[in-house]
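User: Design a sequence. Structure:
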């Protein structure tokens, strides 16, 4: 009986996270202002089984990209999301507001630094140079600021939602 309840809870959590990740990617929003990275960070704190976590992230990304379209460098973006998911719970053992903001900065910066060169590689491959790379980082800085602000805002929102609702899974992390 307990096993069935636990198994049902895992499936429901998987489906809930899948739908939230999917919607966060396909709903119209300002450029790079989505809860996607934040959801991945929070999920990594909640889901200890990395295989379930990674499969959920990949499945939601693939389904959303089937809907909105695939793009060059997509595998690098997926890889960055997986790195964020696998490393977020390793950076801090106990989570508080300052640490959740730091995780948002870490993940946003990692995403910006690793995915910005993809524009150059996949769109301007004849003009690859150090100067064009710097130019792409300068042009991508606006997107980085949107990613950073949305990730921090959503991290704080999810942190307080989970903390205030006293989620038993999250309570061991949410000690301030």
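Assistant: Done.
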């Amino acid at each position: 009986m307990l096993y069935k309840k636990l198994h049902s809870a895992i499936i429901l959590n998987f489906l809930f996270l899948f739908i939230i990740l999917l919607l966060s990617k396909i709903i119209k929003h300002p450029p790079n202002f989505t809860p996607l990275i934040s959801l991945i960070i929070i999920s990594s704190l909640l889901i200890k089984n990395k295989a379930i976590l990674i499969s959920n992230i990949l499945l939601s990304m693939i389904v959303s990209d089937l809907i909105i379209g695939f793009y060059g460098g997509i595998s690098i973006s997926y890889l960055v999301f997986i790195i964020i998911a696998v490393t977020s719970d390793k950076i801090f053992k106990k989570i508080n507001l300052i640490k959740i903001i730091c995780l948002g900065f870490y993940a946003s910066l990692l995403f910006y630094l690793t995915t910005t060169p993809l524009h150059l590689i996949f769109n301007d491959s004849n003009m690859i140079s150090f100067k064009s790379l710097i130019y792409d980082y300068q042009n991508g800085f606006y997107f980085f600021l949107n990613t950073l602000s949305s990730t921090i805002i959503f991290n704080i929102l999810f942190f307080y939602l989970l903390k205030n609702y006293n989620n038993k899974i999250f309570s061991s992390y949410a000690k301030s």
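The chain is about 80% helix and 0% strand. The chain has one domain: 2-171.
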